[in-house]
């Protein structure tokens, strides 16, 4: 996890890139290359783009930048759903 200062600087950089019409995947690549995890990337995209967390989550999940993690997150989501269905 990045420090709050690091995250604030990355958010400023993401905002600048998005304002300059840099593709979202390039912004996500910047975040990931600078050590942001998926959750941090979602939070930064949400704030930098002025969109909902749901929209930011979808952008991150569907991105080429995080495509190598999609299967893992789907498995985790399925496991949580099964636990919820079992009443845990």
Topology record:
Layout: H1 4-19, H2 24-33, H3 38-49, H4 53-62, H5 70-85
Helix pairs in contact: 1-2, 1-3, 3-4
Structure commentary:
This protein has one domain (4-85). The protein is 73% helix and 0% strand. The chain is built from 5 helices and no strands. It has helices spanning 4-19, 24-33, 38-49, 53-62, 70-85. The protein is elongated, with a radius of gyration of 14 Å. 22% of the residues are buried. The mean pLDDT is 91.
Poorly predicted spans:
none
Provide a count of the helices.
5
Distance from N terminus to C terminus (CA atoms, Å) equals 28 Å
Global morphology: elongated
Order of helices and strands: HHHHH
Give the averaged pLDDT, no decimals.
Answer: 91
Largest sheet: none
Determine the fraction of residues in helical runs and give it as a percent range.
over 70%
Structural class call reads mainly alpha
Q: How many beta-strand elements?
A: 0
**Number of folding domains?**
1
User: What value does the Rg take, in angstroms?
Assistant: 14 Å
Strand content: under 5%
What attributes does this structure have?
mainly alpha; elongated; 73% helix; 5 helices; 88 residues
């Amino acid at each position: 996890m990045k420090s709050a200062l690091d995250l604030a600087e990355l958010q400023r950089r993401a905002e600048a890139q998005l304002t300059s019409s840099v593709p979202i995947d390039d912004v996500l690549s910047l975040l990931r290359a600078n050590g942001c995890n998926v959750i941090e990337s979602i939070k930064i995209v949400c704030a930098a783009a002025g969109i909902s967390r749901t929209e930011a989550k979808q952008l991150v999940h569907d991105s080429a930048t995080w495509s190598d993690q999609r299967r893992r997150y789907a498995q985790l989501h399925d496991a949580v759903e099964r636990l919820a269905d079992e009443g845990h």
